[in-house]
Write a structure and sequence with these properties.
- It is a single chain.
- The chain is mostly beta strands.
- It contains no helices and eleven strands.
- Strands 2, 4, 5, 6, 9, 10 and 11 form a seven-stranded mixed β-sheet that branches. Strands 1-3-8-7 form a four-stranded antiparallel β-sheet, with no helix packed on it.
Length: 123
């Protein structure tokens, strides 16, 4: 059982940056692909980014490509989401998740989820 805890959310103005952090409880963290999803009020949870177990491969949603960067530090059991040039449409609760599948962009492919962290971007 992998426990995930997100942090780093907050209220920022449009154009600002934030870095989200997801800390995992298990030393087996390095064997999982990790992903970030987000859910805005009244909307479905959507894929944001995913990274392979060794960090060598990443995939991004079109809406964040060029602005967000996912990375990981397996020695620290941590995955990050650097968010630059934030827009009001980025306002959502952000969740990290762990998957046994490489390159997964669907919610159902992820086995473990964090509790989420709120990101609010004011325009």
């Amino acid at each position: 059982q992998v426990q995930l805890v997100e942090s780093g959310g907050g209220l920022v103005q449009a154009g600002a940056s934030l870095r989200l952090t997801c800390a995992a409880s298990e030393s087996t963290f390095g064997s999982y692909a990790m992903g970030w999803f987000r859910q805005a009020p009244g909307k479905e949870r959507e894929f944001v980014a995913t990274i392979s177990w060794n960090g060598g491969s990443t995939i991004y949603a079109d809406s964040v490509k060029g602005r967000f960067t996912i990375s990981r530090d397996n020695a620290k059991n941590t995955v990050y989401l650097q968010m630059n040039s934030l827009e009001s449409d980025d306002t959502a609760v952000y969740y990290c998740a762990a998957s046994s599948f490489l390159g997964a962009t669907k919610r159902g492919a992820y086995d473990y989820w964090g509790q989420g962290t709120q990101v609010t971007v004011s325009s």
